[in-house]
Structure formats: C-alpha cells, structure tokens
Design brief:
Helix content is 66%, strand content 12%. The chain has helices spanning 5-13, 16-25, 32-36, 43-55, 75-112, and strands spanning 30-31, 59-64, 67-72. It has a 3-stranded antiparallel sheet.
C-alpha cells in the first residue's frame, strides 16, 4: 500500500509535540538538544519525532561535524493548506447562508411584534 505525502503530513501534524517542533523550526534551524529543551521527553523520543517529520517532508536534517540540525520545509504545509482550503470555503459559504437566514428570522420577528 502506497501512502501519499498528504497522508504523511497529516499523520505527522496529528501529534502536538511535532507541531511544537515545527513551530520552533519556523523561527530557525535547531539541533535535537535545542528542540528537546521545552519537552520532558528523552532525546531519542525527539529524534523519533524528527524522523516522522522528515519522512513527511516537513523537515530536512543536515550534519556539520558532530552537530545535526533540522530545517523546516514548508512546501508540504502549503499542499495541506490548499487541500483544506476547499473545506474552509464550504464552511464560510454555510455560515454566510446561516447568517442571512438568522437576519431574516430576526426581521420577521421584529415585524410581528405589536
């Protein structure tokens, strides 16, 4: 079974720790130790999270001497956002229709008041 990149991206984003790691990487590259600072989990656990993010194409990892840094790759997030955009438009349209309906109901109610 082949898993498409969009599925990998959403699976990676499902975990709050991975979302927090991406938020940190949006500020700039970081090492595993730097990414682990705000968490109460082990460095190997952070490395596993990074592997999931890397497999989804959300980060790249590079090595310079003994340091290994991670870099955010935003293109997969753009693809996920584009996929979700059609559903945002769907809900926006529904809310606009609901708002118009509620305004009509309020207008009818105010016209019926003595």
């Amino acid at each position: 079974m082949t898993i498409d990149r969009l599925s990998l991206v959403f699976a990676a984003l499902a975990d709050p720790a991975r979302r927090a790691i991406l938020a940190r990487l949006a500020e700039g590259d970081a090492t595993v130790s730097e990414l682990a600072e705000p968490f109460s989990i082990s460095l190997p656990a952070i490395s596993r999270h990074l592997k999931v993010l890397q497999n989804a194409g959300l980060i790249t990892r590079s090595r310079s001497a003994q340091w290994r840094s991670s870099t955010l790759q935003a293109e997969p997030l753009r693809e996920a956002t584009a996929w979700m955009e059609r559903y945002r438009r769907f809900w926006d349209d529904n809310f606009i229709r609901l708002d118009a309906h509620l305004q009509r109901m309020q207008q009818q109610a105010s016209e019926e008041e003595p």
